[in-house]
């Protein structure tokens, strides 16, 4: 009887510990960009009801980081990554680091660069230099890991590879790593599973998305929002990507859905992703 009781207590403690950490599958706040500004707390409740406790925030939606942290803590939820603009990351690095720390994030990422696609080699070298500076400050001053999120325009050809390869080559892995957005890589004809195999230790985060079949491919970093479709129904080979991700340094898998159909698509995408990540 004592052994049974001890076993039960052990199982309960394991469950409690599991609940006190972010799930591997998370969601990007941009998915709910239309509802967060209307009712922030209710949107968190909607996400939690899906069984998701891990959020990557790309926006504070008019809230203070302290208020967001309090709402997350009250629900047993976590912000694991905080997205800042390129300008803020460059010019307000310490402010960005402070916000990320209050939110409880481990990662800070930049996802958009204001440039005319495709990215040039000269731009890539300047960006890589900036990233090394940003990443160094965030790591030494705040123990935060900096990641750059691709958006498609980095995959133009350069010396037998791509401009993205140039960024990777010219950034210090102790200061800079990457978040792979598989839709934006795919739409630029850069196979996300190949990227994961090529740089298994540089990708720490991933946006899991699917692209409507027949969508035009280019390097613009832009497409109609409703070309985001439920995972497993589009043209990206999601299982192949996930197999490559399982052998890489990916820490968190974030669902991002930019479409107008998130209420229908996100639960279906979550079910699909869970089935493939068993």
Low-pLDDT runs of 5+ residues are 1-18
CATH architecture name: Alpha-Beta Barrel
Residue fraction in strands: 15-25%
What is the rounded distance between the termini?
33 Å
**What is the CA-based Rg, rounded?**
19 Å
In DSSP terms (H or I, runs of 4 or more residues), the helix count works out at: 11
Global morphology: globular
- Look at the structure and give the mean pLDDT: 93
CATH classification class: Alpha Beta
Helices and strands, in order, run as: HEHEHEHHEHEEEHEHHEEEHEH
Give the structure's gist in a few sentences:
This protein has 278 residues and is an alpha/beta fold. Helix content is 44%, strand content 17%. The protein has a single domain, classed as TIM Barrel.
What does this structure look like?
By secondary structure, the protein is an alpha/beta fold. It has one domain (25-276): Alpha-Beta Barrel (TIM Barrel), CATH 3.20.20. It is 44% helix and 17% strand. The protein has eleven helices and twelve strands. Helix 5 (93-103) packs across helix 6. It is globular.
